[in-house]
Amino acid sequence: MNNKQINLLIEFILLFNLFHYLNQTGERPFICHYENCNKGFITKSNLKAHMCKHTGIKPFICNFENCKKTYTRKCRFKIHLRMHVYRYNEYYIII
Ligand SMILES: [Zn+2]
Ligand SMILES: [Zn+2]
Q: Above pLDDT 70, what percent of the chain?
């Protein structure tokens, strides 16, 4: 992956996040039934990510360079992974 491709990927992620933000005013068919939470979500995966807050489970673990950072949300984890990709590329550019 070259720098141009990485930039395109980041653009895409940002656009995707904006799309989610714009959708926040819309309907939220997925409701959290945990105790008296009753929070609504647009997608099932959003609800799943939210449930992690209640259960404390973080399903996304970064194994890159033994980093071991954990994330409840896939989008956050992806953004974190970009950081490794940048560092990794820099390393090879220096060599
Ligand atoms: Zn909840
Ligand atoms: Zn990491």
A: 76
> 88 C-alpha to center of ligand 1: Å?
37
Cα(39) to ligand 1 centroid in Å equals 6
Q: What is the pLDDT of residues 29-55, one digit of tens each?
A: 889 999 889 998 888 888 888 888 898
d(CA 80, CA 73): 11
Report the C-alpha gap between 49 and 43 in whole angstroms.
Answer: 10
Listed by start position, the domains of the chain span: 25-57, 58-95
Name which CATH class applies to 25-57: alpha beta
Q: Cα–Cα distance between 95 and 7 in angstroms, integer?
A: 22
